[in-house]
Amino acid sequence: MSQTQEIHGTVADGYEPVREEFAAFVAAQRPDYEGQLCAYVHGRPVVDLWAGADRGALYAAYSSTKGAAYLVVALLVQDGTLELDRKVTYYWPEFAAEGKGSLTLRELLAHRAGVVGTDTGFTAAELADDRVVAERLADQRPFWRPGTAFGYHALVIGALTGEIVRRATGRTIQELHEERVRAPYGLDFFLGLPAAQEPRFRTVQPMAPTPTQRALLEELPDGPRSLPSVAFNRQGAEPTDLESLPNERAVRAKGPASVGGVASARGLAGLYAAAISEVDGKAPLLKPDTVAEFGQFHSVGYDLVVRGHRSYGLGFQATADTWHPFLGAGSIGHSGAAGSQAFADPATGLAYGYTRRRFAFPGGAAPENDRLARAVHEAALGG
C-alpha cells in the first residue's frame, strides 16, 4: 500500500468526487505508481490530477495513438480529400495484391482488411517505420477474406491508413497531426517525439502481476501461427515485446501511428476536447455529422484477433460498448496496451484522458479507468 503518495492538481467545482476516487485508487497501488487523469467538459478543463511524477511527465500512449491517427483521417474525410466508400486501391494500387482489391477505406478503418501482420513478422526497425510496414502488407495475403469478418489490426492499422493518407495528400499522418492538431492546440500528444522533449519521457515499467494474474496470463492460448501471434508480431525472428517497445528511441522518434505516440493525460483529453468542442475560442475540429459517422458501429461482435466481443466505429473503438457502457452512444476513443484510455462523449461534451507508467494487467484500458471515467461522467451530468 502507498502511504506517502501525494495527489497533485486541481478539479473544478463539482468534481471533488473525482479527486477522491483518484486518491482512493492511488492509495491502494504500489508506492512507485505514476499516473495522470484529465478531463474536459464542453472544452473547459475540469480535472487535472497526477501522482508519482511532475506535471510535465510524458508516457507511452500505445494504441491510444490510433485515436490521433483516426482524427487526421476524419479531418481528411470531412475536407473531401478522402472518400470512405472508395476502394483502397484508388489511392494505393499496389494494395490489390492477393485478393485485396475490393476492400474500401471504410472497411479498412473498421478492421476488416484481414492483413493483421505478415507471415514472417516484422523486425523492430520495421515496426518503427509505417512506410516499411505498409509496403510489406501490400503484398501480404489476407488472413480472412477482406470485408467478411473483423479483427484488431493492432500494430499495423496506422501504417495502412497512413499509406492512404500519404498517397492522397503527399503528407504523413504524423505531419498532418502536428500541423492541424498538436501544434495549434499545444497538445502534449506527439506522433514523433522531438529530441528536446525526451527528458520528459518516463520509460514503461513492466507489468507486475500477482501470482493469480500470472497464472491467467500463462493460460492464454498463443500458438506461434495463431492470429493473435501474427497481429502482435510474436511469430517472427524478432518477437515484439510490447512492454519494452516504446522504450526504444527509434519508436518514439518516428511515432508509428498504431503504437508509437507519447502523451500526457492532458494531451489525450485535449485531443478529444478539440475534436468535439470549442477550445480556447477555436471551433471544434470535427462537425457533428463527422463525429456521428466515425462513431457509428461498423464492426460489432466476435473479434478474430482478441477472441472476444469488440465494437469499432471507423477506426475508433466504440467506447460505450467496448469499455464504458454508461457513456452515450456514438462515443469515440481508444485505449492503449499499458492502460491508457482516451475518449470523447458527444452527448455530454466530455473528453477524458488517463495514462500510467507501469504496464497494467491484462493489457488494454487499465481496470481503474472504469471507476475513474464513471466518476468524471457522473460529475459532468451533475454539472
From TrEMBL:
Top-level taxon in the UniProt lineage: Bacteria
Key word Hydrolase present: yes
Keywords: Hydrolase
Beta-lactamase-related domain span: 36-372
Family matches, as InterPro entries: Beta-lactam-related (IPR001466), Beta-lactam/transpept-like (IPR012338), Beta-lactamase/esterase (IPR052907)
Keyword Hydrolase: yes
One GO MF term attached to the UniProt entry: hydrolase activity
Gene3D superfamilies named in the record: DD-peptidase/beta-lactamase superfamily
Cited PANTHER family: BETA-LACTAMASE-RELATED, BETA-LACTAMASE-RELATED DOMAIN-CONTAINING PROTEIN
Protein name, as recorded: Serine hydrolase domain-containing protein
Upper lineage: Bacteria, Bacillati, Actinomycetota, Actinomycetes, Kitasatosporales
